[in-house]
Amino acid sequence: SQQGIRSMLVSGDTEQSAEAVAAAVGIREVQARVLPEGKAQAVAGLQSDDRRVAMVGDGVNDAPALSQADLGLAMRTGSDIALETAQVGLMQSNPVRAAQAVLLARATRNVIRQNLGFAFAYNILLIPLAAGLAVPIFDAAGGVPGGLTWLFGERGQFEPIAAALAMVASSISVLTNALRLNRWQTGSG
Question: Most buried of the four, 17, 89, 97, 183, by CB within 10 Å?
Fold first, then answer.
């Protein structure tokens, strides 16, 4: 698909039932009459092609494949063993929600990476200033310019209040970036 997710239906049901379900949710690849160990083997086969595999299931027969998958997603109406084996429980019994859960996880991972970048940038830029890196620079320049004394004092030492404000600004940027996930919708990432 356009999000880089390849969907296939691997079912223990008849070809007719599996094809009907696949058509209803827009899945083109279908394997029917597959035993539980066959489902796990199908997952392992995809993994052997260096693919990360998510498995969605709801029954006892899905447990081996849910366990084999890199990510197991169980429908909340599923069997206890499926729910216990999976890493994620889907609140709605709708297979389309599985793809949405993967996309939301990707968006969350991206926000985490961005937030780590913000935090590292803050530390990389401001720790040297707090350690006095600007003092020799301002000494060589003949002192701190008047407009920067609130930030660097008279000697060029980073002011504690400025460091505190910068830390608050860093925290607000991280929090604001994380809150973008509240507006996340399928496809908007």
Answer: 97
